[in-house]
Amino acid sequence: SGLPGQPLYTRLDGTSMAAAVAGGAAVLLREYLREGEGESAPPAALLKALLINGARPLDTTAAAGFGLLDLAGTVLALKEDAFRYVVKERGLGEKEQAAYEVTVQDSSAPLRITLCWTDPPAPPGAGPALVNDLDLVVEGPDGRRHLGNDFEERGLPDRLNNVEQVRISQPVPGRYRITVSGAKVSGEHYRQAYALVYGQPPDRDQVEYLVGGEVKLTSGRVLQLPQVVKAVLNGRLVAPPEQALGSGTDVYITPGGGRLYAVSEQRSLAPARFLDTAMGVVVTAEAQEDQDGGYLLRVASVRARGKDGPPADVPSGVRITAKINPSKQVVWEAGADWEEKEGFLEALTADGLRLINGTSYQLAPGYVVARETDPAGLDVLDRVFGPPGSLAELPSGIPVTLRLDPQTHCVLHIAVRQELISGFVREVTEDGLLLEDGRAFAIFPGAQVLRGAVAETPEHLSPGEYIVGTVLAGRAELLQIQVHTGILYGQVLFAGAGGKMLQLQDQTGNYRLLEVAPEAGFFRGAGNLGPTALGSGQWVRLLLNTEGRVVRVDLAGGARQVTGRVRDRSPERWLVDVGGTTCRVSPATMITKNGYPVALGDIQPG
User: Which residue segment(s) compose the domain that 393 sits in?
Assistant: First the structure.
């Protein structure tokens, strides 16, 4: 995955993390040198010189360093003899020189020469710390003279570092002379060993699309497929190679364009969905056990059941096939497919699902059950989170929509169609129930009020209590009412200890430190994303048990901030106009004035 979400991993950046990655790359490179190049004991200076010479430059200035590590490009350059190297164990004494030559034929590929040596330890407190100083000079067929690490072309030799490099982005075809000299080598009989790597690395690009034998690359270059193409799909060599040359494929092209190496990745997820996040649309598995953060979608349109359209039009619980760029883990192309069936549930067991019409279906591993309702019936704050709470046991006769895997025809997703309302009780009357936001509902005769596992009558409802009601289809009449005494809304200040503790500022402005129960779920819609989906600054709805521990966390789908002066407000209609934007307000909305909680009517225009 290219995003946070896998609980077994932590995402960090910095030199400490880079050291581990570079160390792993050095081990793999050493293995290749031993097995592929016959180097029984490759020295550290050679490993360092090869990795630096194969790195992709990030900038032309010295401040950017030698570039981004590219182990694949380095190994391919060695395999194709595009890189040559010299290990001089005897080394050079002071004022001594050694000369090498390299011939360039392809001027479109950059020429890189890297010199590296393992310097002896300097005395404590020495400055500069360099003991032995070697110089790298490259002279081209055009007469130009290039000094090591003189990337800004000031004409000055490097006197501080034990790595020197010359980069020529557009080399003139012809013969180049490379000179390594001992500018300062301590001790009368001492000599400094070194490693020198030189050559033209393969060109790295991504495939935009493939038409016939012609490849369009993201750099704008159009390439005719060379005769030699080696392609890897999901870690396996494939033939014919065209099947691994889809959009987003990483390609390496050898100098002169004689060979092309392609690396691609394709994943199929089911049940899966397109999830809208602050970073963009993400392709992610819907089942909790398959959650790994997901893959960021690069394109604005996806192929769904044979038609192109926005990912927002694709429902949850489908099979998604994605072409993923292997180096950045970004989806370049995605398609979704599913079969859809509707009916009335007769029974749902571990063996499968049966509808009242007699049709039976097997359940896919990781299938998901979710409620689908018109958000207009929910409290304003609940609309960004979805229906509150979890589904109890599904009763017989309830209408469902089934999404089936088009490959196996097993059920991926069970959408329970319910008309739900949510809100805060203002008053219980003889005629029914009145909510704080002014909505009124009749109560069906015999309707139950569930407070946890305890069944009560509507007379036991109290003003201010938060309820979720099941409404009779097409009528404002409540069939069932659930009372939730432990509902909190707020913004996460800190989520720590692997999701076990949560610090929150709630809708009343109070700061709370809450313990999260081990069995708690972390939801965006129907998807349980796991504790790693929770981060500071997120808006959440929490469900607490009788012990005050969090048993469910719902994450807001897409919160945005509106800033401006209040133009008008209507406490009766629960509306406020901020800078020309009309916003709905819930009884649970946190409203503060000079840091103190107030009612909507206390906010004055201006």
Answer: 339-417
